[in-house]
User: Fold this.
Amino acid sequence: MSSLRPVRGTAREILALLREWETAADPEPLVIATSGSTGAPKRVALSRAAMRASALATIDRLGGPGHWVLNLPPTYVAGVQVLFRSVVCGTSPVLFEESFMRTAEQLHGRGFVSLVPTQLVRLLDDPDETAALAAYTTVLVGGGPLDPMVRARAEAAGVSVVQTYGMSETCGGCVYDGVPLAGVDVRIDDGHVLLRGPMLFDGYEGEPERTAAALRDGWLVTNDLGRLDGSGRLRIDGRADDVVITGGVKVPAGVVARRLEQDPDIAEAFVLGVPDREWGQRVVAVVVRRDRPLDAAEVTSRRGESDLSTDWPPGWKPKQVIGVDRLPLLANGKVDRQALLAMVLEGSP
Assistant:
């Protein structure tokens, strides 16, 4: 049965509910049930006022309304926002059909789509899909770090990319290409990114203590580590819970993964810390090669000997590299960290 508390159902069912919700006199907040990819699952309550503020700020930043293509699960915040922006714009969302070439044929005028980085990486390997993406007014990419080389490759092919940063607690993306949307404030406190604005969530349903821990004097305290560069743009360096402590050295897993992806032979990489008797945690990289598929059992030696770059800061070089045909994904398009950890542990000596 479809519902907005939590959001569930098909795209068409949720769209119908959102249309009713938008015109209701005083509706309850909708609830997004998160996947728990970076911790325990949450039920994030988002008011209509917050969702409206987010949708209108996005439409304004992108230069006006258009048709949105839904290529993400409609029950996660990014998918819900695609549907709700369409409601606010008074347009009908276009549901993804098999390929961007087919979907693009349904667009008339300005077109927008939201992707996660892994989707963009894989689409760029298909010349036809890349050409179809280039027909969109803007391609929003969020939900994780975007490799600058991947972005440059997309833009060289004529794809207009905007990198977004946000989360369920901010009704999705609230910072575009490092610049906050209208009404959003960003500051850095002890390395952590803090956010404030009209699109903040009401709280975690049924979890007042967790809500209080996340909100500090009207600011959302995120688990992301970042900085403001010389031009005031937000730069995300990784997550506080994405640091691998190996032999007493703190290694930013996301930074190592992005460094691996600079190798032209590596299409995708994911780095995680795995329990180790000697090191506490060992740095393990799971990679997808461009030139040939690798068996998941094919790994480097315990000393980390591989054909990857040897110019690493102390402790950063992966002690184990595992090749896979594809990284496992959750329904929202993010890498399934738990599946990778289980795969690595099963193959550990």
User: Anything to note?
Assistant: Residues 99 and 243 are 36 Å apart (CA to CA). Residues 295-307 have pLDDT under 50 and may be disordered. The radius of gyration is 21 Å.
